[in-house]
Design brief:
Enolase-like, domain 1, 14 helices, FAD/NAD(P)-binding domain, globular
Length: 454
């Protein structure tokens, strides 16, 4: 009898297992592929590795500005892949070692829910049955495949790919068409554009980067366009055929040549074939419904990570797993989705937390916005020069004099935004925040500079 059975070894699954083991629970975790899930194997980590390789290439091309005279700089995609694969292997093996050290029983197999008993829940895998007092479902999500004519045929031919296949591609596509301008699509577009591919992004919405502040999104689009990425917004893809992508805009049809097409149109929870119906687990579409303790409508059954589709980010999955384990072990805790930082790891980076101007207006908030260029940061100028137009934008509640949102575009944004989230969570007034001392010289000082605009 296990205290906890976990199905899925991605961020929510493996961290949930570690936290539960730290509480003294007996845990069995099922993962039929590789530990680490999509994040470590097919998403977060491999993407960031390749993007860093592209950034190094770009820096080398402009190295003369820094007194470094590098001649005949070129890029070898195969070497970048080797580095990416090494990083993935290292982290996956690290997760395995942590689980082993914590005495978590890891079964390399898919698992199916068989039902329940008076003591807990039954799960079967490879002909063997397991029983657990609690159950955590953390099976993640997969790339959504919209109903575009020719898409399935393109997938079968290898002409159409998801990010999983593209991240493993050994050769660079001459002409890459990305369908979807969300975070995954933009990061893939950024890498392949920087290393010499011709990249086109088609988006059905009128802006890129999902729920990013519209002003920031517009600036990012212009910066990426400077790198050679071509954007087609408000466009609906109607058909994919070998070598071409067809789309409609304002009633007119057009086509784009492509040697490879990336489908990046969101993700769908992996809930089919789990046996959820045997426990009467409630779903909305494919997503498992959970409360703020990550518990489902069935007591003792939890769902964390992309499988509940609350917000498909690895750092949210980590926190959800912790909340679930805390709840099942009697520790008071609940999940909040209000101050979750988001990052787009392009060059320049975008990071934000809290309200955007759009959400502030929609909520009828009485807010003020201020922004300053990153040139107000001594370190940013020392490293990047004065040419960059990157900036920091802050939103403030005028009535309560509290922070509402922080938005950064520029280097180190991803490493700064957690601190901004903590400033929002502190509920300190703007005048109180002005007394905080930031280390100098750092890019993070830009936040303090903007605060003094209020």
């Amino acid at each position: 009898m296990e205290d906890l059975i976990i199905i899925g070894g991605g961020p929510a699954g493996y961290l949930g297992a570690l936290r539960a083991a730290q509480r003294g629970l007996k845990v069995t975790l099922f993962e039929e592929k590789s530990l680490g899930g999509v994040c470590l194997n097919e998403g977060c980590i491999p993407t960031k590795s390749l993007l860093y390789s592209a950034k190094m290439f770009k820096n080398a091309q402009g190295s003369q500005d820094y007194g470094v005279l590098a001649k005949e700089v070129s890029f070898d995609h195969s070497l970048a892949l080797k580095r990416k694969d090494a990083a993935v292997r290292s982290l996956v093996s690290g997760v395995a070692a942590q689980l082993k050290s914590a005495q978590v029983n890891v079964e390399k197999a898919g698992a199916e829910i068989r039902g329940s008993t008076s003591k807990g829940f039954l799960v079967s895998a490879q002909g063997k049955e397991y029983e657990g007092r609690n159950l955590l479902i953390a099976t993640g999500a997969r790339a959504s495949l919209p109903g575009i004519t020719g898409l399935q045929e393109g997938l079968a031919q290898g002409f159409v790919v998801t990010s999983r296949e593209l991240l493993a591609a050994e050769t660079l596509p001459e002409k890459l068409v990305v369908i979807g301008a969300g975070i995954v699509g933009l990061e893939m577009a950024a890498y392949f554009s920087q290393v010499g591919c011709r990249v086109t992004v088609i988006e059905v919405l009128d802006k890129i980067a999902g729920n990013t502040d519209s002003e920031i999104a517009g600036f990012l689009q212009k910066e990426l366009a400077k790198e050679g990425i071509e954007f087609f917004l408000n466009c609906h893809v109607t058909k994919i055929s070998e070598g071409k992508v067809y789309y409609e805009k304002e009633g007119k049809t057009a086509e784009i040549e492509a040697s490879k097409v990336l489908i990046s149109a969101g993700r769908s929870p992996n809930t089919e074939g789990l046996g959820l119906e045997r426990l009467g687990i409630e779903r909305e579409g494919l997503a498992i419904v959970t409360d703020l303790h990550l518990e489902t409508n069935r007591k003792g059954v939890y769902a964390a990570g992309d499988v509940n589709a609350k917000a498909m980010l690895a750092h949210i999955a980590y926190r959800e797993a912790e909340v679930a384990v805390n709840h099942m072990t009697g520790v008071a805790d609940s999940m909040s989705y209000e101050l979750i930082p988001s990052v787009v790891y392009t060059t320049p980076e975008v990071a934000f937390v809290g309200e955007t101007e759009e959400t502030a207006k929609a909520k009828g908030l009485n807010y003020a916005a201020a922004k300053l260029p990153m040139a107000y940061s001594g370190r940013f100028v020392a490293e990047k020069g004065k040419a960059s137009n990157c900036y920091c934008k802050i939103l403030v509640d005028k009535e309560r004099e509290l922070l509402l949102g922080v938005h950064l575009i520029g280097s180190y944004a991803s490493e700064i935004i957690w601190g901004a989230a903590n400033l929002l969570a502190s509920k300190k007034t703007i005048e109180e925040l002005k007394t905080l001392v930031f280390p100098h010289p750092t890019v993070s000082e830009i936040i303090r500079e903007v605060l003094f605009q209020f």
